[in-house]
Amino acid sequence: MSDSALIEAFLEMLSAERGARANTLDAYARDLEDASGEVRGGLKSASAEAIEGYVAGMGRRGLSPATARRRISALRQFYRFLLGENVRADDPTSRLDAPKRARSLPKTLALEEIERLIAVAESARDKALIELLYGAGLRVSELVALPLRSAPKPGQEHMIIEGKGGKERLVVLGRPALAALDAHLEARVGALPKNEAQRERAARWLFPSASAADGKLTRRRVAQILEAAAVKAGISPARVSPHVLRHAFATHLVEGGADLRTVQTLLGHADIATTQIYTHVAEGRLKTLVETKHPLAKKK
Length: 300
What we know:
Strand order of the largest sheet: 1-2
Number of helices: 15
Order of helices and strands: HHHHHHHEEHHHHHHHH
Shape: elongated
Mean pLDDT: 87
Largest sheet: 2 strands, antiparallel
Radius of gyration: 28 Å
């Protein structure tokens, strides 16, 4: 059988047995036809070296890593099909490594933009939640789930919160966040629902809600508060979200000299690899440090 016939049989299998959609079949057809035309001797009898040469050439042809990953996936599935049909006795894709996904840099905001968001906050509650998302790097899920008992006691400068997986961590609060929380707590009682049942549900939470079924502010409502603040502050709402404030917290810490291990602890990341998206910030700071402080670098 020719490559074209084998590709057609493979696509028929995907459609009949796996319910693949038309656009998926079209993409596989294009990818395999490209490989058939590029691989020396065609796909049916291609050696592992020939397939590896084709993959290596994708970069030289200007194909993106995403396209390369898709084509490698198509080839792997195609050769598994040929093995199952006894067309081939080996899999020439077994040694292939897919191109790694490039980790996009986290979106963030400048300090001046954060200050504008806080300045335009419509209430003590809104100011407090912005201060906690940025000043403490909380996840929005952590913020809305804060019970009233988590509020710092007089003289305390920290909170104990429950993060991902039910793991507790200590969150240190700066003076602005503490002041914003104090103001929110003073105003909070007056904002509780009048209905007794609703009031009982809402009273448990640091950020209560009169309309939510469980009595606490929802993540969507927090996002809406930030969108409104962004508009008032003259910042595109598309650039502002709870997670962007968390990224800003980490980015500004690293820019200020914090090491990644400290940032990992403050963010509640289980693995340092998650925190390493901020390495680019640290590298820039260290380069500046060497260029300005090292005696040889300062020589003209």
